[in-house]
């Protein structure tokens, strides 16, 4: 056995060991995040009604949405305990006629602090995945990231960003693109891409956990909670292979869901200003 193979197997064993510790690492980070965040104010009846409305709307989202067919993929008990979600959609979606699967989750937490453990640069490395960057080299070649996907101001993890349209009325969603890898059981590298963003109660999109903390300093927003969208897919597809299908999937989500989270269609806003 070559020295290289010995080193690779040792590395793989290390990642599997980290994977076993993942839930504990995630819990530690989430607890630290909750201490770092300011305490939210007591909720009012109006806010409780908003949370109930979000939960009700989430529960009515069909598995079949146009050309997308979903299958339930419930959150694990440990994830539920960590996130304490007010409402959650966790499904695997595929497009009719195509083999690719997209792991879709949309989670609303009543308490901003509970979202820290669900942040991709925190959650996935805690479960054995390595967060890659554009200047990293793997398998002997430069990773194929899309330069145009870079944001002028990336989030604190250095993730690339993409602006996606959600249907015709909502305008762009600013989302971060994360690339992960880890050693598989056959010692071959396994790759995954995660597209993610937070939705603040006032309808703003945010890629940054720092912005979530800043928003939590505003007592009203902190009480209303925060939502997060995540779409995970196999491999490291290019920007074109991310943009169109993810925008199409998000655009298939019922308008009532986005409205419940504070997003408003541009036409509605324009009419109200006239």
Strand content: 25-35%
| Number of DSSP E strands | 12
Q: Could you say which overall geometry the principal axes of the C-alpha atoms support? A: globular
For the largest beta-sheet, the strand count, sense and barrel status come to:
10 strands, antiparallel
Rg value: 19 Å
Give the count of helical stretches.
9
* Portion in helices: 25-40%
What is the H/E string?
HHEEHEEHEEEEEEEHHEHHH
Mean pLDDT: 75
Overall number of structural domains: 1
- Structure class: alpha+beta
In whole angstroms, the N-to-C terminal distance is: 74 Å
How is this structure best described in words?
The chain is an alpha+beta fold. It has one domain. Helices cover 38% and strands 27% of the residues. It has helices spanning 3-36, 45-59, 77-83, 120-126, 209-216, 219-224, 239-252, 255-260, 266-273; strands at residues 64-65, 68-72, 85-95, 101-109, 130-132, 137-138, 141-142, 160-165, 172-183, 189-199, 205-206, 226-234. It is globular and about 55 Å long. The N and C termini lie far apart (74 Å).
Topology:
Elements: H1 3-36, H2 45-59, E1 64-65, E2 68-72, H3 77-83, E3 85-95, E4 101-109, H4 120-126, E5 130-132, E6 137-138, E7 141-142, E8 160-165, E9 172-183, E10 189-199, E11 205-206, H5 209-216, H6 219-224, E12 226-234, H7 239-252, H8 255-260, H9 266-273
Antiparallel strand pairs: 1-2, 2-3, 3-4, 4-12, 5-9, 6-7, 8-9, 9-10, 10-11, 10-12
């Amino acid at each position: 056995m070559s020295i290289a193979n010995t080193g690779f197997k040792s590395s793989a064993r290390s990642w599997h060991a980290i994977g076993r510790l993942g839930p504990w690492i995630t819990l530690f980070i989430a607890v630290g995040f909750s201490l770092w965040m300011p305490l939210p104010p007591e909720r009012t009846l109006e806010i409780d009604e908003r949370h109930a409305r979000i939960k009700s709307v989430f529960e009515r989202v069909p598995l079949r949405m146009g050309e997308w067919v979903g299958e339930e993929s419930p959150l694990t008990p440990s994830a539920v305990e960590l996130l304490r979600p007010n409402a959650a959609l966790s499904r695997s979606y595929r497009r009719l006629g195509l083999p690719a699967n997209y792991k879709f989750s949309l989670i609303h937490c009543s308490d901003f602090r509970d979202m820290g453990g669900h942040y991709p640069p925190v959650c996935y490395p805690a479960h054995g995945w390595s967060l890659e960057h554009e200047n990293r080299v793997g398998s002997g070649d430069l990773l194929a990231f899309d330069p145009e996907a870079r944001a002028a101001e990336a989030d604190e993890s250095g993730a690339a960003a993409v602006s996606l349209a959600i249907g015709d009325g909502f305008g762009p969603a600013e989302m971060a693109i994360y690339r992960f890898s880890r050693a598989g059981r056959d010692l071959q590298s396994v790759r995954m891409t995660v597209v993610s963003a937070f939705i603040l109660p006032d309808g703003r999109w945010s890629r940054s956990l720092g912005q979530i903390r800043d928003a939590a300093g505003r007592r009203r927003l902190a009480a209303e909670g925060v939502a997060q969208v995540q779409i995970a897919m196999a491999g490291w597809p290019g920007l074109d292979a991310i943009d169109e299908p993810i925008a199409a999937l998000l655009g298939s989500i019922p308008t009532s869901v986005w409205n419940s989270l504070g997003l408003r269609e541009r036409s509605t806003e324009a009419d109200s200003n006239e």
